[in-house]
């Protein structure tokens, strides 16, 4: 897509983490704030430097108030593959755009950022001095400048082959930093109430951004666990609720997950987690409920559904059932106890989830969930589809050599009708994903083979 001449050019400095998740996050957030992903390059691969065209500085600032994948954003004044190209680009930058930031009453400083190379202080000073042709009339203030400018140099991605000169050099006015500090401040290690599968804080915020969660939204998690995804959504001002089949987890009872702690304390629960971060006012409630049998009357309630279903590895895949559904040969429970725990195939779980999202999401609302896959057999056709939901993005996070999970983002584009509930069953997508009902067996088969290889090599 060509850069539009009526849009301002900005340079995004991206974090080198969760690389596949970066582009969908930036696209989702720009769309949320009234912009659009406009660039001369659809995908930047592993590069930390992205040049975007954004309608206004306000949209750029709003983007940085949300993103955890980007470190900083700059108004781009110049760019080149050599110092000569950079200087030529800077000399062609409109002076009227510079004036508000270089007048005599202003204060400023210039910083140097290099990727994949370290410069000496002498080299940094030399680069700054070479910019004396720029029309700076204000005073240098290194502690509290009104405006900060940066020279950013890109030395490629290979730490074993660092070139003498950079591949690209950028110069721009710093606008804002991203929200990388949230990864530490919301770290699961410091959280009051955790479980075996509590979601990493960074990924929780990425999921909320993919879901375009915003203030006053209602966000639902049908497999809520200890509420990590609710916390991320509540941080962005959404009201949160959820369900889980595990009574002990919902009520904060039973054995503790932390080392050297046997039982959970009286105040270890989901509400306490939100209270820990000052977010309790956004907590609606969490119910003990079976996701395969939603207890909601028909209607659209949620702006986003963000969830991490169990894969059958550390958390079992279960649903409730009736006496009639118990396999033969198993002794029946007393008549007074109807619900029993039955196995819940992954294909059934995900199609129940998609149907539930299609029924209860507002039009334009998003479903964000993790899909576990056995890598040697995975194809894009295996991603479950639904006539009411459009696939927005599909990002991979590797779990092992032979397994991974895909972060799937879908958007509701059609009002749900009764006929849509089973329309997906005859499709090839449904048949393809049924093969992953044995994901647990394949996962542990791979683990067993790896252990056997390690034992064999240690004996040789």
Automatic annotation (TrEMBL):
Entry annotated with the keyword Transcription: no
Catalysis: reaction(s): guanosine(10) in tRNA + S-adenosyl-L-methionine = N(2)-methylguanosine(10) in tRNA + S-adenosyl-L-homocysteine + H(+)
An MF annotation (GO) of this entry: tRNA (guanine(10)-N2)-methyltransferase activity
Subcellular location, record wording: Cytoplasm
Domain Ribosomal RNA large subunit methyltransferase K/L-like methyltransferase: 190-320
Any one annotated GO CC term: tRNA methyltransferase complex
Keyword tRNA processing carried by entry: yes
Domain tRNA (guanine(10)-N(2))-methyltransferase TRMT11 N-terminal: 9-180
Oligomer status and interactors: Part of the heterodimeric TRMT11-TRM112 methyltransferase complex; this complex forms an active tRNA methyltransferase, where TRMT112 acts as an activator of the catalytic subunit TRMT11.
Family from the record: Belongs to the class I-like SAM-binding methyltransferase superfamily. TRM11 methyltransferase family.
Protein's UniProt name: tRNA (guanine(10)-N(2))-methyltransferase TRMT11
Lineage: Eukaryota, Metazoa, Chordata, Craniata, Vertebrata
Name of the gene this protein is made from: TRMT11
């Amino acid at each position: 897509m060509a850069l539009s001449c009526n849009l301002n050019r900005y340079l995004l400095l991206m974090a080198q983490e969760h690389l596949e998740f970066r582009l969908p996050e930036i696209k989702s957030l720009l769309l949320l704030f009234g912009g659009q992903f406009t660039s001369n390059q659809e995908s930047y691969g592993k590069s930390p430097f992205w040049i975007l065209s954004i309608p206004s500085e306000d949209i750029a600032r709003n983007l940085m108030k949300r993103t955890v994948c980007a470190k900083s954003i700059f108004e781009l004044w110049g760019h080149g593959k050599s110092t000569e190209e950079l200087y030529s680009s800077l000399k062609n930058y409109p002076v009227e755009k510079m004036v508000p930031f270089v007048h005599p009453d202003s204060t400023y400083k210039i910083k140097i950022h290099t990727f994949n190379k370290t410069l000496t202080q002498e080299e940094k000073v030399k680069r700054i001095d070479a910019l004396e042709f720029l029309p700076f009339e204000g005073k240098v203030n290194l502690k509290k400048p009104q405006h900060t400018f940066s020279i950013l140099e890109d030395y490629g991605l290979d730490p074993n082959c660092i070139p003498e000169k950079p591949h690209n050099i950028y110069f721009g006015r710093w606008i804002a930093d991203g929200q990388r500090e949230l990864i530490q401040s919301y770290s699961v290690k410091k959280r009051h109430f955790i479980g075996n599968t509590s979601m990493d804080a960074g990924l929780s915020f990425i999921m909320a951004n993919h879901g375009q969660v915003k203030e006053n939204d209602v966000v639902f998690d049908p497999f809520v666990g200890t509420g990590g995804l609710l916390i991320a959504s509540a941080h962005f001002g959404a009201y949160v609720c959820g369900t889980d089949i595990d009574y002990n987890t919902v009520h904060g009872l039973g054995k503790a997950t932390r080392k050297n702690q046997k039982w959970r304390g009286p105040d270890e629960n989901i509400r306490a987690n939100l209270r820990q971060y000052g977010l309790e006012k956004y907590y609606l409630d969490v119910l003990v409920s079976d996701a395969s049998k939603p207890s909601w009357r028909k209607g659209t309630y949620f702006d986003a559904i963000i969830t991490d279903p169990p894969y059958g590895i550390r958390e079992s895949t279960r649903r409730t059932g009736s006496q009639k559904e118990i396999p033969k040969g198993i002794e029946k429970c007393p008549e007074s106890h109807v619900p029993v725990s039955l196995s819940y195939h992954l294909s059934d779980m995900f199609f129940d989830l998609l149907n539930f999202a299609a029924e209860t999401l507002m039009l334009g609302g998003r479903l964000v969930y993790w899909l576990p896959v056995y890598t040697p057999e995975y194809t894009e056709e295996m991603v479950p589809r639904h006539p009411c939901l459009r696939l927005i993005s599909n990002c991979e996070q590797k779990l092992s050599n032979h397994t991974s999970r895909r972060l799937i983002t879908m958007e509701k584009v059609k009002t749900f009708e009764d006929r849509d509930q089973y329309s997906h069953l005859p499709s090839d997508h449904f048949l393809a994903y049924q093969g992953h009902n044995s994901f647990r067996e394949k996962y542990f088969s791979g683990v067993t083979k790896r252990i056997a290889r390690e034992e064999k090599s240690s004996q040789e």
